[in-house]
């Protein structure tokens, strides 16, 4: 039975980390909110799960994944669950917790990226918190982005199996997520990320290797890969960018 | 062999969610950063792991747990790993992913609590972002805290096994974390949380049940339970509180 992925239509967002894994593995999945109401899909089908006043263990927010009777929320949790089934997790069980720890650190970075344009309230418009967004973005680009990327570069360099992968010696969903992080940061902050390869050569090499994988390349060229836009996590507001590193 | 928990000394912080599980289970553990340098413990021992330029898979930030050769970072990941070993996870494997999803939603709430006092830059003093902190706190208390607590209350009410536990019919680490969330929010925002029991009766009942457990009560009365203070996640700045709900 096909996996059912529930995430907002119209943006990549956090759902994209799950899509990349499903696409790389060529797994059968339905992107529920992007479907048609006549097929019992669409945004209404997603909201029914979110707003249910009777279901056991309703999700707090998208993305969530339905696999048979099981409803699994939270991006990193979905990937932890799917990883072994899609052959995108380390074989070693201990390393699976290492991979999950790395994915959760990626999730922390994603949250901080979101807060660069929404530092005060996720329910308010960007325009209503632009001044604060400039201050938070300046700090993000000066301190936080280098801290996260420097860390991921170090994980690659110190990987006992070599710098081709984040965890172990095979491709995992963490590698796919690193690709997405680089794509997103380059979209949101083209000036600040202009010289990324000089500072983080192994991260950029991993990004390039993922982009060249046939299933990922086919996905990126498909209409299923929505372009980045200013409703997602990674948004390009030129006034928040700076010519940094 | 005793577990080694690595977390900053002097505050509860994110490490406290792990401590509560270890204490409830009466597991043997060493709180490394609180130990003595002469025992090869202390903050230096923790920084050596964080700053290592040779270890495989160094952690990004505390807390992290060492179990033999395995170093596990990220609070929810540590609890996912420890849960079954401490008999604090659901027996059903599917429910373990449900529990992890709930714990990750608690982690999201914790991050938002942190950002009430540090909305612009975690590296700057609170005093340097007090105006923005007031705006973010107002939004947190008006919108985000009710959204999270309303959700957790709903999970309890809709639990097919009854509202005594967050996942399944036995105590899990998620229940312990709900206790900590209530304690922290009450410390940080005593006015805004004054009538918590009226709005979220099952959450408060769960908090009370956890507090009454013998191992937890003994821990709370021990010197190992540090008081909340203004270096932790939950900080009491009266100007950020309001008489809400």
UniProtKB/TrEMBL annotation, chains A, B:
This protein's UniProt keywords: Transferase
InterPro entries tied to this protein: Glutathione-S-Trfase_C-like, Glutathione-S-Trfase_C_sf, Glutathione_S-Trfase_N, GST_C, GST_superfamily, Thioredoxin-like_sf
Protein name per UniProt: Glutathione S-transferase
GO biological process: glutathione metabolic process
UniProt superkingdom: Bacteria
Record domain GST N-terminal: where: 1-90
All copies of domain GST C-terminal, residue ranges: 92-233
GO molecular function terms attached to this record: glutathione transferase activity
Organism placement in taxonomy: Bacteria, Pseudomonadati, Pseudomonadota, Betaproteobacteria, Burkholderiales
């Amino acid at each position: 039975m096909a996996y059912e992925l529930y995430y907002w239509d119209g943006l990549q967002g956090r759902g994209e980390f799950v899509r990349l894994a499903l696409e790389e593995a060529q797994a059968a999945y339905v992107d529920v909110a992007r479907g048609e109401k006549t097929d019992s899909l669409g945004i209404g089908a997603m909201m029914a799960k979110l707003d249910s006043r009777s279901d056991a263990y309703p999700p707090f927010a998208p993305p969530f994944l339905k696999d048979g009777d099981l409803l699994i929320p939270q991006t990193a949790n979905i990937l932890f669950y799917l990883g072994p089934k899609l052959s995108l997790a380390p074989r070693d069980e201990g390393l699976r917790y290492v991979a999950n720890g790395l994915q959760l650190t990626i999730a922390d970075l994603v949250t901080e990226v979101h807060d660069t344009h929404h530092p005060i309230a996720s329910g308010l418009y960007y325009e209503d918190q632009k001044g604060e967004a400039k201050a938070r973005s300046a700090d993000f680009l000066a301190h936080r982005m280098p801290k996260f990327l420097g860390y991921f570069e170090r994980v690659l360099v110190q990987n006992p199996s070599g710098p081709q992968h984040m965890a172990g010696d095979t491709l995992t969903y963490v590698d796919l997520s690193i690709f997405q992080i680089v794509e997103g940061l380059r979209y949101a902050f083209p000036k600040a990320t202009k010289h990324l390869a000089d500072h983080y050569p192994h991260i950029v090499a991993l990004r390039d290797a993922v982009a060249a994988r046939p299933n990922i390349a086919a996905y990126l060229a498909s209409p299923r890969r929505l372009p980045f836009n200013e409703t997602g996590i990674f948004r390009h507001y030129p006034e928040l960018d700076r010519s940094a590193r």
